[in-house]
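Methods: example folding runs. The two proteins below were folded one after another, and each record is reproduced exactly as written to the output file, sequence line first and structure-token line second.
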Amino acid sequence: MEAVILAAGMGTRLGSLVPKPLTSIQNEKTVLYLQVEKLLKRKEIHNIFVVVGYKKEIIMELFPDLLFVYNSAYARTNTAKSLLAALQKIEDDVIWLNGDVYFDSEILNLMLEPQESTCLVNLSECNAEEVKYNLTSDGYIKYISKNVESPMGEALGINVINKNDLENFRDELATVHEGEYFEKALENLTLAGKLKLKPIDVGNYFCREIDFEEDLHAVQKYHRNRKH
């Protein structure tokens, strides 16, 4: 298995002067540092690819042992095209995550155990900015976007694509508009019956994307208080 971290965006909503994945959670421990630390502990993950764009040199200097993919069009594209750039270099199972998501390491056990494509979700009420989902009658993801009617909860930004689904997923990522999130390609495939995407309930584990100051403060508080 390979891992991909999407870290090319500008993170304008948080108002940071550095790439959002370099936001400090505790002293020198940034979001990206903690993600990499948890992924490196997994023996089944061979390589970590980081898709960079905005102020890429800072990230590359801080993590010289990782593999980097440059999205030169980061200012006008979204996560679909960043992910596609990384997947062009991969032929194995892939776990990928947004570069602004903080998560308990135990979540990786949940995501990697099934031998199929998976999507980490919760059961909750959602606001307009969150990526939402609902399910088919047999319990797989049907719709996954910011505009889902009667959503069951939020998709949390950590996903696995099985290598058997990889070619179709790459083709769909190439087809969607450059401004789309990667979830658009997933949804196109689920609705067409070309992908069975298993929802993985986060349960009582902690996982939160850092979009706004309130998210950052919640993550920092959790990280300070959790047992290490």
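Second run, written to the same file directly after the first:
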Amino acid sequence: MHETGLSFNDRSGDRLRAWLALDRETFYDEARVAILGMAFCYPGRDGTGGDLPPRPECAPRWHAPLRPFFPAIELTLLVGSYAIDYYLPGTRPRPMGEMIARWRDFLPDFFVLPHPSWRSARWLRDNPWFEEETLPELRSRVADALNLPLRCEPCPRR
């Protein structure tokens, strides 16, 4: 993100765009898609191959003031546990997969998703219902929100 100024400009972004059935051009079209990170700075690596959590003061400071600048929000994706915990406090059971399995419970306001990082690869393999049930609905809602034809394509299995 810091080098390019683009969120999800890595393999996790490739996976997320595949889940959404969006190409890079559409995904990064600021007139159509808004990406509001849980923090606006990169927190660094955690030493185990992942990233540190977002700084806890960022979302409370910036999300509420910024969301009104996006008056035409048709779909809000909560990508990963930090976004889910912030927007749906106290609702997330352990393990995270149980929350993702309840994705229908949060519609139409929110669509909950696991983080598309490499760490979710095993969870995705172990939970084929996500690709079979959740992704078709997600793709349909994204296509409707962006007035796009619905494209179905397999997700990358990395």
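Comment on the second run: The domain at 11-146 is CATH 3.40.470.10 (Uracil-DNA Glycosylase, subunit E).
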